Amino acid sequence: MRPTLVITAAFLLCSLAARAAELPAGVRRVQVLNYPDCLELSNGETRVTLGHHVGGRVLEYEWRGKNALYLDPKEGEWTAAGGLKTAPSAGRLDIGPEQIIPRREKLWSGAWTAEAIGPRAARLTSQPDEATGVQLVREFRLAAKGTHLECEQIIRNVSRETKYWSHWSRTFAVHGGIGVVPLTPELKRYPNGWIMYAQGGEPAIQFKPVDPNVRVRGEFLEVLGPPRFPKLGFDSYAGWMAYVMPHGQAFVKRYATPRDAVYPEVVGLTLCLWYPQASQVPACEIEPHGPRNVIPPGGSASYTEHWHLLPHAFPAGGQSLDLQKLAAQVAREAP
Fold first, then answer.
1. How far apart are the C-alpha atoms of 242 and 238, rounded to whole Å?
2. What is the pLDDT of residues 127-145, one digit of tens each?
3. Would you give the DSSP letter of residue 73?
4. Are 266 and 215 in contact (CB under 8 A)?
5. Angle, CA of 184, 189 and 191, to the nearest 5°
């Protein structure tokens, strides 16, 4: 090796070591697909990677070598010159309400910034978005042990008008699982505890839907697979839901559901599942909805989701989930 190359290689190694030394414990830079410099949060048991190139997202949420999120491999076609060739996948977050918020490419698929903010913690920040008048900040904190991932979304009003946007999660989990929603009958608004968005012809929302893949069992509602129409809404105020995946893990989300708040979606739902056929999109979209915020110019509002991955056997053919056991597992995870 020529001397100049030796010096260059040594310089690069020192530079990489210096960059790594700058990061807090449990944080490092990694490449995921064709996305360089993603931030990885790790505690030895759980690994989380965050992408900032096309929206601020969780790309991987992995425990025991299994990623709970559906990350479209076609995203590997991304290049700086050509842009993303598919819709963003994996751990997506957004703001709503869905039917009235304008298009917001800077927030949804624009370039964000990424920075480490502490041990196993990072912040993703969007560009200011003229269409909505806000800038989004997402902060992620992985617990020192276990799988608890805290996902906080902050909505900053950078306009001169009061804004009323709300938190909207749009996380793609792997396909083929069973959704579990605890019922709160004392606060029931929907006759069957759920509604279905019908497709084809004029848009419609079915208030008394019936589907073989959706059932009420005891104090819980189960979505056993893709229903007739993929988008379902729920009126649960229990503050958590679970999605039990075929590889024997339950993806649990916990989130606040204040009972005196206004939920601004068309039917006032607190949670959605979008569960298409695998041939359409091989994912199940898990969508907690936050209440409406009143955000004055220069003000901000935040909403936090708590994610967990829990060991839970997927039922064999003809068997059912042990819902009481699952609820007890979730209760043990609550702070």
1. 12
2. 999 999 999 999 999 999 9
3. G
4. no
5. 95
- State how far the Cα of 289 lies from the Cα of 256, in Å rounded to an integer: 9
Q: What is the pLDDT of residues 59-70, one digit of tens each?
A: 999 999 999 999
Q: Give the domains, in start order, of the chain with CATH numbers.
A: 3-333 (2.70.98.10)
Give pLDDT, residue 7.
35
What distances in angstroms separate CA 265 from CA 195, 270, 275, 292, one per listed residue? 13, 9, 19, 9
Distance from C-alpha of 283 to C-alpha of 175, rounded to nearest angstrom: 4
CB atoms within 10 A of CB 9: 11
CA–CA gap between residue 295 and residue 301 (Å, rounded): 7
285 beta partners? 172, 274
* pLDDT classification of 86: cutoffs 50, 70, 90: confident
- Count of other CB atoms within 10 angstroms of residue 189: 14
More confident residue, 71 or 6: 71
Interacting residues of 48 by C-beta distance below 8 A, sequence separation 6+: 40, 41, 42, 58, 60, 61, 62, 140, 142, 149
- Report d(CA 108, CA 87) in Å as an integer: 10
Residues 129-185 pLDDT 10s? 999 999 999 999 999 999 999 999 999 999 999 999 999 999 999 999 999 999 999
